[in-house]
Amino acid sequence: MKTFTTLATLVISSAFTRAAPFDHAEWVNPDYIARMSIHESCNATQTIQLEKALDDFERFSHNAQSYLQRAGTEDELIDKYFGSSSNPENQPVAAGIFASLSDGDKAGASLRCDDPDGLCALYDGYYAGHHRGTNGTLETVICDLSYETRKPIEQVCALGHLVPDDQAGKFWGIDLIHRFSHLPIVAGGSVGHAADEYETLIDLAKNNASEAAWNMKTLQYFALDAWAHTFAVPGVGCDEYADSADQSKSTPTPTPEPEPSPTDDAPLLCHTHANGEEHCTTAE
Ligand SMILES: *[C@@H]1O[C@H](CO)[C@@H](O)[C@H](O)[C@H]1NC(C)=O
Ligand SMILES: *[C@@H]1O[C@H](CO)[C@@H](O)[C@H](O)[C@H]1NC(C)=O
Ligand SMILES: *[C@@H]1O[C@H](CO)[C@@H](O)[C@H](O)[C@H]1NC(C)=O
Question: Locate the Putative peptidase domain: which residues (predicted)?
């Protein structure tokens, strides 16, 4: 017993000796921080909700990245969103974008609550938030409307929610995937809007897959669906196929929702790209 203890001590101390050269590492960017900070303009209740939104964002993006990396090369969900059977490079590209979203440097980046550009007030009832563009490339304003409309991650697949039937960005964490994609560190600002509707992004994966990994809504819906399949309803998710298979015999065809129009009271989501181009969609 005594001999054994001595041996173990020897092994441990020699491991320490070998690790010594790495003690002098010089990490690039000593200011690095992975988590977005909350601006001082946010009060106590806003801060507690935004910290939870950041937790949700981290859960969604880590799970999306991990799904892409664990799944191997023939996964139905990955093929559905990224057309990976025809464009296999989309899988590591998307995993890299999610890695940048969650672990990319957010030093100096913040979520603000004080409407510094006056756009929340100007588009009251329409703007849920916006990137400050040239007024502050690292700053994202969250308008009061967000606190009224955004849902927590725990409600994915709950309360009648189906992934294809509702805007992915109605969930706080998925909304932040969009907002943080405007940070320069994330994919160099190259994530775009080739297809914004659920049907068109599924079509994009089938017919124009080279665009799929760089399409914002594809990344958002994939993160949501991967969460649905991993945690919300494990192994099943809550997409239209599972739902119609279960209910096709008993449920009448639902009345289609009217098309959203700019005059609806649905909140508009606008943001400014690095090149100054403004992009708006109805609320997610
Ligand atoms: C924080 O600000 C929001 C928006 O103005 C307000 O609704 C909320 O009551 C405030 N919370 C506190 C603790 O003052
Ligand atoms: C920048 O701020 C001005 C007001 O100071 C505002 O009119 C303009 O819309 C802002 N730009 C962006 C991209 O938010
Ligand atoms: C595919 O994307 C290219 C480049 O954006 C576009 O010109 C083309 O029309 C797209 N094709 C389809 C079938 O959507």
Answer: 26-238
- Mind listing the pLDDT tens digit for each residue in 102-134? 999 999 999 999 999 999 999 999 999 999 999
Judge whether 24 lies within some domain. no
Q: Confirm or reject: Cβ of 211 under 6 Å from ligand 3.
A: yes
Half-sphere exposure of 147 (CA within 13 A, CB side): 15
Q: Domains in the chain: how many in total?
A: 1
The CATH number that applies at residue 247 is 3.40.390.10
Find the residues whose C-beta lies inside 6 A of ligand 2: 117, 119, 132-135, 272
Condensed to tens digits (0 to 9), the pLDDT of residues 219-262 reads: 999 999 999 999 999 999 998 644 444 444 344 444 444 333 33
DSSP-H helix ranges across the chain: 2-19, 44-70, 76-82, 90-103, 119-122, 144-149, 172-180, 198-207, 216-227, 240-247
pTM higher than 0.85:
no
Asked if the structure places residue 26 within a domain, the reply is no
Q: For a pocket test of ligand 3, which of 204, 208, 218 has the largest count of ligand atoms closer than 8 A to its C-beta? A: 208
Ligand 3 centroid to 261 CA: how many Å? 25
Ligand 2 mutation target, pool 112, 114, 115, 119, most atoms within 8 A of CB: 119
Atom of ligand 2 nearest to the CA of 134: 13
